[in-house]
From TrEMBL:
It comes from Afifella marina DSM 2698. One of its GO terms (cellular component) is membrane. The keyword Hydrolase does not apply. It is found in: Membrane. The chain crosses the membrane at residues 46-63, 70-90, 143-163. Its main location: membrane. It is a multi-pass membrane protein. One of its GO terms (biological process) is protein folding. Pfam families: DsbB. Keywords: Membrane, Transmembrane, Transmembrane helix. This is Disulfide bond formation protein DsbB. One of its GO terms (molecular function) is protein-disulfide reductase activity.
Length: 170
């Protein structure tokens, strides 16, 4: 096995494990820690749900010795997905820091005695917490900020894997 193949195997596996750990952490904070996600938090999870199966296919393709063109396409697609994830995290963090306004769907409705809230819950549209209030911080970053950091790490890792894939073609 060539050193490049070994490196790609490690990179693909690291991408899968890092992405899986990130989304499992978010789900753990929700289901074990009791942190209710807002509308933007839920939107930030979508790239992970799309990318994890693609990442698993990429891991299997690298381990099976798939053609470099296919690997480049898979890593390229993942790079785009993680860039979108990074953008979503930065956008949400900016909403939390009040750098810009969030979507109207992120406004928390009034308390339980509010007629609009009761009507909304009857319609099945129970709203989560407001998107512009961070529920948790670590080292000055909220969940959204940490998602941006994790997504940026995944972008860089994916670009490096794509570079290694393309460099091996020569």
């Amino acid at each position: 096995m060539a050193a490049t193949d070994r490196t790609l195997r490690i990179l693909a596996l690291l991408l899968f494990l890092a992405a899986g750990a990130t989304i499992l952490t978010a789900l753990g904070f929700e289901h074990i820690g009791g942190y209710q996600p807002c509308a933007l938090c839920l939107r930030e999870r979508l790239p992970y749900y799309v990318a994890l199966p693609i990442t698993l296919v990429t891991v299997l393709a690298v381990w099976r010795g798939a053609p470099r063109g296919l690997l480049a396409a898979l890593f390229g697609a993942l790079g785009v997905i993680w860039a979108v994830s990074f953008g979503l995290g930065v956008h949400h963090a900016g909403v939390e820091y009040h750098w810009w306004k969030g979507p109207d769907t992120c406004v928390q409705t009034g308390g339980p005695g509010d007629a609009a809230s009761m009507f909304n819950s009857l319609q099945g549209g129970v709203s989560g917490p407001s998107c512009d209030e961070a529920l948790w911080h670590l080292f000055g970053l909220s969940f959204a900020g940490w998602n941006a950091v994790a997504s940026l790490f995944l972008v860089v890792l994916t670009i490096y894997a794509l570079y290694r894939t393309l460099a091996a073609r020569r």
